[in-house]
Amino acid sequence: MEELAEAAGITPRTLRFYRERGLIPPPRREGRIAWYGPHHLARLRTIAALLERGHTLNGIADLAAAFESGRDVGEVLGLGEPTEEEPVRLTPEQLADHFGDQVTAENFATALDLGYLAMDGQHIVHVSRRLLDVSSALVREGVPLAAVLGAARDVRTHADALARLFTDLLREHARDEDVKRLRPLAKSVVDAELSLALDRRLRELSGG
């Protein structure tokens, strides 16, 4: 317990308190020996990141209880209805394989705030395999993870605005039951416009 507390930057007393509150899962026991693993450290770092962001222990406890009760990952992540995105379950080691030493408490907290990451028992869940692959590819190209997450926040703002624009347009001119069916049309428009915008921007940068 002392080694885990030291690695997490907390006191053994705080660790014991977290365990009593159900904020971390119980250790694996062999006789009188209690074994804590990497998932315990990941959970403690998640708690620290959430506390830094202003979350209360009661709120964190409620979230932990929701995960431990076996609620659907999509529901916990706020996805609601079925989505085209595929959530990915990762161990802390697998997350480190994607992002290396850039898996800091600050970056972890930002990813939690954005809804990209959540804890599900002993695993970390990323909301989208496509976003995971793209963000890890950008990091491999030398873009800091903090910068990737900062850009993601801006993209989220613009994406939400585009979603409102298209749903309002379709609800005004189509039947409500047709809005979901016409969703691919909105995605095609955004894909095409983004492609054209990137072409224009690259020409500007090259002086063309």
| Gross geometry | elongated
Biggest pleated-sheet summary? 3 strands, antiparallel
Provide the CATH topology of the largest domain: Multidrug-efflux Transporter Regulator, Chain: A, Domain 2
Strand fraction: 5-15%
CA radius of gyration: 21 Å
Can you tell me the CATH architecture of the largest domain? Answer: Orthogonal Bundle
Instruction: Please identify the top-level CATH class of the largest domain.
Output: Mainly Alpha
GO molecular function, one term: DNA binding
InterPro entries: DNA-bd_dom_put_sf (IPR009061), MerR-type_HTH_dom (IPR000551), MerR_fam (IPR047057)
Keywords: DNA-binding
Pfam families: MerR_1 (PF13411)
Mind explaining what this structure looks like?
With 208 residues, this protein is mostly helical. The chain has helices at residues 2-8, 12-20, 38-52, 57-68, 73-76, 92-99, 105-114, 129-140, 145-173, 183-205, and strands at residues 28-30, 33-35, 88-90, 117-120, 123-126. The radius of gyration is 21 Å and the shape is elongated. The strands form two sheets. Strands 3-5-4 form a three-stranded antiparallel sheet. Strands 1-2 form a two-stranded antiparallel ribbon. It has two domains: 2-142, Multidrug-efflux Transporter Regulator, Chain: A, Domain 2 (Orthogonal Bundle); 151-205. The model is unreliable at 70-74 and 76-82 (pLDDT under 50). The protein is 62% helix and 8% strand.
Task: Please outline the helices and strands.
Layout: H1 2-8, H2 12-20, E1 28-30, E2 33-35, H3 38-52, H4 57-68, H5 73-76, E3 88-90, H6 92-99, H7 105-114, E4 117-120, E5 123-126, H8 129-140, H9 145-173, H10 183-205
Antiparallel strand pairs: 1-2, 3-5, 4-5
